[in-house]
Amino acid sequence: CGVFGIFNHPEAANLTYLGLHALQHRGQESAGIVTSQEGTLHAVRKMGHVADVFVNGAFAQLPGRIAVGHVRYTTAGGSLPKNIQPLTAEYRHGSVALAHNGNLVNAEQLREELEHDGAIFSSQSDTEVILQLLARSREPTFVERLCDALGRVQGAYSLVLVTEDKLLAVRDPHGFRPLVLGRLRNHPECYVVASETCAFDLIEADKIRDIAPGEILVIDHTGLRSVQLRRDNRRFCVFEHVYFARPDSVLDDLAVYEARIAMGEQLAREAPVEADVVVPVPDSGVVAALGFAKASGIPFEMGLIRNHYVGRTFIEPKDSIRHFGVKLKLNPVPPVLRGKRVVVVDDSLVRGTTSRKIVKMIRAAGASEVHLRISSPPVISPCYYGIDTPTRSELIAASHTPGEIARYLTADSLAYLSPEGLMRAVRGDSGTTYCDACFTGRYPIRFIPPPGRRQLR
Length: 457
Ligand code: 5GP
Ligand code: SF4
Ligand code: MG
Prior knowledge:
about 450 residues; Glutamine Phosphoribosylpyrophosphate, subunit 1, domain 1; Rossmann fold; 2 domains; seven-stranded antiparallel beta sheet; six-stranded antiparallel beta sheet; about 30% helix; disordered C terminus; binds guanosine-5'-monophosphate; binds iron/sulfur cluster
């Protein structure tokens, strides 16, 4: 998911809309904006893309100088209207709106406890647990109530909250998901927060800094102040650099573009191949393929063309759509491929179904050899922290060797970037600065399975 927040701007909703546009790649199922004006919250939330949700006078329904926005793709709770964020609540101390990127690992357990105690939930979202805990806290101030609530939840959360007079930005103690603070170049009194810096570029805001792991940043008319929730080992999601984030963003002080170039270069060193042309799987494989071409000296060509009017296929929830999606999305360019030994570079291999079709497509266009190079290690474990990787049984590398996978894909060879090589590319030490659990199975926080009755997904 993607989150955005803005404090103290007359066109808060409009700028939030633009910010969400820049974050659209982080979720295409639904979008929402909530504004705060003189103690009242106003909301527009719908299923669909940002451009389709905020139409026909939506901004007239969103007055106020404080706003929070969200684009969603499902990790917990169904793809349903009642789960669209930002969530809003009225409780005895006032109103609050909340947008969440991440996934809580003990939400179902907490929900059972709260329901046992009489709480009623209006969504299936793990995020609602935070609002319920906030409303039940006996602490005297909002920030203390929030600390109290967050003291009970575990997992990944980058949050943006809006109250009558405040904007708050929160990152979980491990800092799994990104969240960055900035200010508008022409309105320095106007602060913004967003999942990625690409949202700032569009609205002409400058990055000030990342929200720190475990930090609660409070922005109101008295200025900025921070409360430190607790701090754990930093475990920023390395998959943001591999795939999820936009390459023009800077995440935790590392440019995604540079990280992906480095992944491709490292991959070329680790798994060289004699070939005539390097072809990326667009768009996710493009930057790593440039790195591979640079390090190997093999020319880079666009041998596959992507139709940009089709969404990221893996985010579409239905299998049938995902299946059909490859041909909808990609088409080969025969003059680039005919008679050539082709190195195909992609960012990740998850199920193998897409890659198999791509290999066949390239061969059918006349390639003499097809070598697949993946700029991340084999995905062997599911993510519990907010990226929708499939269950273990669907992860091809969880049960097959690279040789077996190459045969299934009908590729002449297949090689992945090593976990160490990936850490080198993102300038981190495995197991201390990044989460790489989907590649290594080493989980920073244990997932707590739901206690029976309800399934998380
Ligand atoms: P596959 O060959 O595993 O079916 O698809 C790999 C390609 O699709 C990569 O380009 C990757 O960007 C994308 N992809 C497919 N499925 C998923 C998924 O479930 N999660 C993620 N993160 N990426 C996926
Ligand atoms: Fe990111 Fe993978 Fe960790 Fe999930 S398990 S947070 S996708 S690195
Ligand atoms: Mg891809």
